[in-house]
Design a protein that fits this description.
It contains three helices and nine strands. The protein is an alpha+beta fold and 145 residues long. The strands form three sheets. A five-stranded mixed barrel has the order 1-2-3-5-4. It has a two-stranded antiparallel sheet with strand order 6-7.
């Protein structure tokens, strides 16, 4: 673990575009964004930062909000597809009609969320296109789970 000094900060990767990582850092209740690159050593060690990672950064230019990612902090969970880390919940959106709800796919995704120890939330969309009976059937099935 790298010690945090004046130029060292901890944050969370919010977005990745090409090889630029947007890292959100919160200090004294204020959120700031830094555009960072990954240290070359990380590539040699086959460590790839992903969205959601908590990272240790070194600020290179404070005025331009630029930095370098020095270390990826331990992850609570990791998904390979899409590549994302440290999720606490997943929202699954299914439609009641048009297209017909794919409950088998939903079951697989719920099992995956459970395996990653994430809180699943099911959102049923387009309820105005379906019947109240079908909505109640789906709702009663998944409420039991």
């Amino acid at each position: 673990m790298i010690k945090q000094g004046e130029w060292m900060k901890q944050g969370r990767i919010i977005t990745i575009v090409s090889s630029s990582y947007q890292v959100e850092v919160e200090e004294n209740g204020q959120k700031q964004m830094y555009i960072c690159s990954a240290r070359g050593k990380m590539k040699k060690e086959e460590q790839t930062p992903v969205v959601g990672d908590f990272v240790q950064i070194e600020v290179v230019e404070e005025e331009k909000k630029q930095g370098v990612i020095l270390e990826i902090l331990p992850r609570s969970n990791y998904s390979k597809r899409p590549k994302i880390a440290n999720l606490t919940q997943l929202v699954f959106v299914i439609s009641l009609k048009m297209p017909k709800p794919d409950l088998l796919l939903l079951d697989k995704q719920l099992a995956y969320a459970n395996w990653l120890e994430m809180k699943p939330i099911i959102c049923i969309n387009k309820v105005d296109l379906g019947t109240p009976e079908v909505l109640r059937q789906i709702q009663s099935l998944y409420e039991k789970i």
